[in-house]
Automatic annotation (TrEMBL):
<dbReference type="InterPro" id="IPR050300">
    <property type="entry name" value="GDXG_lipolytic_enzyme"/>
</dbReference>
<dbReference type="GO" id="GO:0016787">
    <property type="term" value="F:hydrolase activity"/>
</dbReference>
<protein>
    <recommendedName>
        <fullName>Alpha/beta hydrolase fold-3 domain-containing protein</fullName>
    </recommendedName>
</protein>
<dbReference type="InterPro" id="IPR013094">
    <property type="entry name" value="AB_hydrolase_3"/>
</dbReference>
<keyword id="KW-0378">Hydrolase</keyword>
<dbReference type="InterPro" id="IPR029058">
    <property type="entry name" value="AB_hydrolase_fold"/>
</dbReference>
<dbReference type="Pfam" id="PF07859">
    <property type="entry name" value="Abhydrolase_3"/>
</dbReference>
<feature type="domain" description="Alpha/beta hydrolase fold-3">
    <location>
        <begin position="109"/>
        <end position="329"/>
    </location>
</feature>
Length: 357
């Protein structure tokens, strides 16, 4: 089922929205040298971030989905551009896994893309995953299986958790894989879904099939890239970095409302940053290693650091990396914008995974 199409009015408003975006970018370029607050050091990057932030600020969910296309469409586009053979697998419920590499690879990375649960897996995501798989495959037999979960508001919580659980069950049961051959990871909302899935294994969700009995040994690792594990914290980095990151507090609030059913109260599956330490105390029993990555000047960095410290306090092999001067999922965004990066932390993620293959 395709996302809801924008109304005629929403389509007509796309044109003035483009004007607002262009105006915001030009204004940022002109004023960037005089901005004393937090900003991207590279003026072009700073202006492009402003353009994305403005697009996400002035658009409705329907407009965003209309402009950005579909997960499957972008997957086919990027695999074609990179001369990678596409492989799309439909699971029992109809949700799809998008493979990079062989389904029979010895190791697999189950990846959940970001986008506030409402945006499709974009060009930056796919290019990051293609680069990651190609880099790892030089010395290891490894594939990536990216879940094309149903976007909100078409599907809402805990629907995406059900789909993530189904994907993991497929790898464990249908493919007869051991947990030690599987990495689980994601960026932003995908990081949220990664932590929610681990929480579901530790504390089975009442509305999601219990698969905890299938996890008889720890997973190889968990990779959390700019995880969105608190909907929209007030104050701190949410204020200081609001005009320098690619997303704004207003966009985050709108997306979280689209993901949640009505006025559904939050819980530990949705906002792991607010969960007590005891909720994750058995995490070392289900995953061998954990890496939490964040950008120093991203909107969510305070909650990321708080959660990273929580995980480090209970998991002896957990580590947290904060990239200086970086915004939200910086190495994914730079790929989307085709920007060069002198300090590409995607290579750090690749090295971290490679050391555990």
């Amino acid at each position: 089922m395709a996302p809801k199409a924008p109304t005629i009015v929403e389509r007509l408003l796309l044109l003035p929205n483009v004007g607002r975006i262009i105006f915001a970018v030009i204004l940022r370029l002109l004023t960037q040298p005089f901005i004393t607050g937090v900003k991207q050091k590279n003026a072009i990057k700073d202006a492009l971030y402003t353009g994305i932030r403005t697009f996400l600020l002035v658009s409705s969910v329907a407009q965003e989905q209309y402009v950005l296309g579909t997960t499957q469409g972008v997957y086919k586009q990027l695999t074609g551009r990179n001369r990678v053979k596409p492989d799309i697998q439909t699971l029992k419920s109809g949700v799809k896994l998008y493979w990079l590499g062989s389904r029979s690879a010895k190791k697999v990375i189950l990846f959940f893309h970001g986008g506030g649960y409402v945006l499709p897996c974009g060009t930056g995501h796919w290019q990051f995953m293609i680069d990651l798989q190609k880099g790892l495959a030089k010395d290891h037999d490894v594939a990536i299986a990216a879940l094309g979960y149903t976007l909100a508001p078409e599907m809402q919580y805990p629907g995406q958790l059900k789909q993530a659980s189904e994907a993991l069950e497929h790898l464990l049961v249908d493919q007869k894989r051991s947990p030690s051959s599987i990495f689980i990871g994601g960026d932003s909302a995908g990081g949220n879904l990664t932590v929610a899935l681990l929480s579901h294994i530790l504390h089975p969700h009442s509305q999601v099939k219990d698969i905890s009995q299938l996890v008889k040994e720890p997973f190889a690792g968990a990779v959390l890239i700019s995880p969105w594990i608190q909907w929209m914290p007030a104050g701190g980095s949410a204020d200081t970095n609001a005009n320098s990151d690619i997303v704004s507090p207003a966009a985050g609030t709108r997306w979280s409302k689209a993901y949640r059913v009505g006025n559904t109260q939050s819980d530990n599956y949705q906002e792991a940053a607010l969960a007590p330490t005891t909720w994750f105390e058995k995490l070392p029993t289900i995953v061998k290693d954990v890496i939490v990555w964040g950008g120093e000047v991203e909107l969510l960095i305070d909650s990321i650091v708080r959660f990273g410290n929580l995980v480090k306090s209970i998991h002896p092999k957990a580590e947290m990396v904060i990239q200086p001067g970086a915004g939200h999922e910086d190495f994914i965004t730079t790929r989307m914008l085709h920007l060069p990066s002198k300090d590409d932390h995607a290579k750090l993620i690749q090295s971290w995974i490679a050391a555990r293959l």
